[in-house]
Structure formats: C-alpha cells, structure tokens
Amino acid sequence: MQAIEAINRALFLAINATPETPHGLVAASLFIANDAILLAPIVLVCLWLMGGDTRRELALRACAVGFLALGINQLIGLAWYHPRPFAIGLGHTFLAHVPDSSFPSDHATLLSALSFTFFYGGRRLLGLFVLIVDLAVAWARVFIGVHFPFDMLGGAIIAWLAGMLVKPLWAVGGPLVTQASIALYRRLLMLPIKRGWLRP
Fold this sequence. Notes:
Layout: H1 2-15, H2 23-35, H3 39-49, H4 53-79, H5 106-120, H6 124-143, H7 149-188, H8 190-194
Helix pairs in contact: 2-6, 3-4, 4-5, 4-7, 5-6, 5-7
C-alpha cells in the first residue's frame, strides 16, 4: 500500500501546477475542473429531447449507472478517508475545497459512468466525446491540486463496476422504467409537445 501511495504522490507532483505555471493555463484548468461537469446533465437532457425510445432508454440507463456509482463513492468515503493533497501539505492548490476524502473522484466517476454507458449502448462517438471531457477534467483536477491521479482511476473503476451491476437489472426492468418515464414526460409536458416545441 505504501508503494502505491508513493507512486500516487509522485504522479501528482509531476502533474500539479506550480506558482510559475502560466496564469492562462491555470485559469483554463480551473474552468475545466469546475464547469466541464455540467456537460453531464446537458448531454442527458439533449439525448432525451432528441426523441426516440432508444435514446431515452440510454439516457435513463446512464442516469442509473451514474447515481449508483456516486452512491458507491459515498460509501467508500464513509468507510475510508483518504486526504486530499492540500490536506497533507503536498504540492500547490489553486482551488478552495473542503478537506473531505479524495478517493474516488465524483467528477471522474460521473463522466466515466456516462462514457461507459454510451459505449456499451452503441453510441460510440458520444461515448468518446464524453471520455475526452472526462480525461480533461481528471487531468485538470490533479493539475490544480485537489485530487490525486489514482482518485481519477478509482472513479473510472467504480463507474465500470456500477455499469456491470446495472446491466442485468436494466435488462429486466429497463423497458418498463423507460416507458413509464416517457409516459410521465408526455403527460407533464403535454402543452409544449402539442405546440411542437418538444418532441413527443
């Protein structure tokens, strides 16, 4: 375990920005680290609004995988505390953050959950796009000093595990959940759908 932690810290220090890092690069990294996660709900909403049972089923399944993965993260955080780099005085931090457990990263977990679900669901280009954003966010959050590299790897593994757990359950209940959700959507947003503002 000590050897793994030593590798984790060495990789962190190799990636982490310093006071000499150009301000523009730090500012761009802060934007990616903080705001790129908003892509997750945007992609899911767009996928739903594009219409079609297949797209909507995929959006719902991605939500299920994401929520399960984040739930697993919470359990890990409660059972085992791993300090963030700044909590142990390692490297440089450019973003104020609460000193909660760093492992695994919620940002990496959620984006990985979406990416893996899209890949397995046959939407490879969309999955690749989200994966690229995921990697950028993972790098940025290490770069600005709030996560270790293995926090990001852990998030990806948790996301994959959640996807494997959801897969057999979704095969049984997914179609029912999808149809019920579409029916609810059509009922709640009946007026804009009738006016052609939204797809049925």
